[in-house]
Amino acid sequence: MAARWLIPIRALVEPAxxxxxxxxxxxxxxxxxxxxxxxxxxxxxxxxxxxxIPAVVWVVVALRRGRLGVDVIAVLSxxxxxxxxxxxxGALIAVMLAGGRALEAAATRxxxxxxxxxxxxxxxxxxxxxxxxxxxxxxxxxxxxxxxxVGPGEVVPVDGRVADVVAVLDESVLTGEPLQVERAVGEPVxxxxxxxxxxxxxxxTATADESTYAGIVRLAQxxxxxxxxxxxxxxxxxxxxxxLALLLAGAAWAVSGSATRAVAVLVVATPCPLLLAAPxxxxxxxxxxxxxxxxxxxxxxxxxxxxxxxxxxxKTGTLTMGRPVVVDVVAAPGGDATEVLRLAASVDxxxxxxxxxxxxxxxxxxGLPLSVPTEVLEEPGRGVTxxxxxxxxxxxxxxxxxxxxxxxxxxxxxxxxxxxxxxWVCVDGGRIGAVLLRDPLRRDAPRTIRRLREAGVxxxxxxxxxxxxxAREVATVLGLDEVFAQQSPAxxxxxxxxxxxxxxxxxxxxxxxxxxxxxxxxxxVAMGARGASASSEAADMVLxxxxxxxxxxxxxxxxxxxxxxxxxxxxxxxxxxLAMGVAALGWLPxxxxxxxxxGIDVAVILNALRALRGxxxxxxxLPTGTKEMLNRFSAEHDELRDTLGIxxxxxxxxxxxxxxxxxxxxxxxxxxxxTGRIVPHELAEETELYPALxxxxxxxxxxxxxxxxxxxxxxxxxxxxxxxxxxxxEGAIQPxxxxxxxxxxxxxxxxxxxxxxxxxxxxxxxxxxxxxxGTGTRAQSP
Length: 782
Description:
Layout: H1 2-33, H2 37-64, H3 71-83, H4 87-108, H5 116-121, E1 125-130, E2 133-138, E3 147-150, E4 160-162, E5 167-170, H6 172-175, E6 181-183, E7 188-189, E8 194-195, E9 200-204, H7 212-226, H8 233-256, H9 259-269, H10 272-291, E10 294-296, H11 299-305, E11 310-314, E12 325-331, H12 337-348, H13 354-365, E13 374-379, E14 383-388, E15 391-396, H14 406-418, E16 421-427, E17 430-438, H15 445-454, E18 459-463, H16 468-478, E19 482-484, H17 489-500, E20 505-509, H18 515-520, E21 523-527, H19 533-538, E22 541-543, H20 549-584, H21 590-608, E23 619-621, H22 624-641, H23 645-657, H24 661-697, H25 704-730, H26 735-769, E24 778-780
Parallel strand pairs: 11-18, 11-20, 18-19, 20-21, 21-22
Antiparallel strand pairs: 1-2, 1-3, 3-9, 4-7, 4-9, 5-6, 5-8, 10-22, 12-17, 13-14, 14-15, 15-16, 16-17, 23-24
Helix pairs in contact: 1-2, 1-4, 2-3, 2-4, 3-4, 3-9, 4-10, 4-21, 8-9, 8-20, 9-20, 9-21, 10-20, 10-21, 11-20, 12-13, 15-20, 20-21, 22-24, 22-26, 23-24, 23-26, 24-25, 25-26
């Protein structure tokens, strides 16, 4: 009970100290103006004594931790002013000391980090079956070999093996991967995962204390306990400033024989530029970071972030969107891809499956009219079957023997190469198409990685529970230094600890499975907008928006704030050293020295407040008109991306059916798209957008490569138009045209996809970044 009262009492020490010392200084000043010198002295003495008591405690605590901080000078100067009867000087120093401590307390006070979400989510009961009887028992009563029933939506209580039917599981809490997985009879299941299908049974292979989820909680608690306390910036400078001040004060006393002169030296040596300027800069940085959507829980995290050189990231939800999207719809030969998607979405409307949600979202985004399904039947792990317009439609997996045939094998091979999931669509038992889905890379991820490199990050590592193939693909696209796939929470903690041994390390994650690694890192960063609350509790920083690029903003803020803090401290100490020399010569009495020190404090504090503005060297103006133009072209990209498949389909038709009439019709449709929409879009970018970006980006060279791509797009478009004209004049595509047409069509399709991604990553993200100050007029330099 006593410990519960100590926390609020400690939180009141700094504010009370400020109130009392300021009140004593002000009261003494009023009494002095009224001609009551004795009352004024007693007020100032009271303020000084009230500041000495906690200052002595702080010195003792620091000494017990093996540190000799700047508070020693403050204690000596406070006591010295009392000894030599310089009470006004003592009151001024007391106010400066109280203000510095209050600012530092505000900067370092952090939110609770007790990982409540992990503990609250841990299962407390289990359903144990003995014969035909199922009873609910405390989790601690579960023994190895017990048969447990896991209902739909329930958390698996202990580690075990599937005992009766195929289990459909949401393992994102452990792996971070959004796609559900199946565990066949006899396969292991880890505690903490969620049953995403029907009820199933497991045979316990471990007790609750020995299971995976309990290990995650222990790892997070242990990793959090291992973090050493942050040494204050002021204390680091005190290592040489304190001996110098004491030596100069002692020399002044020895040479002059005047204790007052030594006290005057200590008064101007009181390191208020350290006690005030550095916390002000850090608090300003914390405020600045919060405005861009980054909550930094303490000053130590901000300071460390400014020194970070290694960044470790989770993949799902951090570098990727964290939810699957439709990347393509493949129709069977002679089928219609749009109708395949419409039927699949109609059936999936009533399914809670993550893939079903993606299919429905894609269909609605294309404006397709969906039908109301009837007789809906969902089989966990297999898919959904329903009746639509009198036909029986199935969406999901196919039996192994139903994927034979060249077309089905081609879809499977493509899915394997692209790292996508397949949702087959069947009508009355016959396959009509397939929907390919994947968790896409964030549009801003490549640009964010480049900005992090520019901000000083020298090593980028990705940890993921996903398979090696998609993990390596993401790492290759982003240019990461190292990737570790199929990582368990324990593996992630081990990897983060290994990185921390070599450099200041930042870990970014968004799931409960990331919480232990976040706690183990020098700085843990949680994706708070969509991540689990456990990761937010374990982290030192929380990104309140679902955007990784805010981390780059935070690193800019951290480095700028630390630079301002060091600059303010160094300048302030230099001025204090100069004043110390003057005081040692006897030309500066204690009271005047205290006032001079106040002037120095004001100067360095004003300089420290520059941290609120951010570093102007990393920002550039983005006119409102340019921002609107970027948003317009970005919207056009979203529309055109859905139609690019027409170009590829035209080439596929030419390969499958040869130069027949259908191939010519498909080619004409592709050419109409190219000349009617794509070429005008690219021309508008070249003549409107790129000139507008030249000034914000520094020069036209920033868009020169993209301009060359526009020229190549125009060349291929002209070549395809010439082929169409020749084919029309001859009444059919000529055999000698086929090879060049295929090269042009496939080449243009690939070039446009790459070009769209490059523009979105390099230019269109500027419109989002310009909103980070809420003004819409600033953008980060690329």
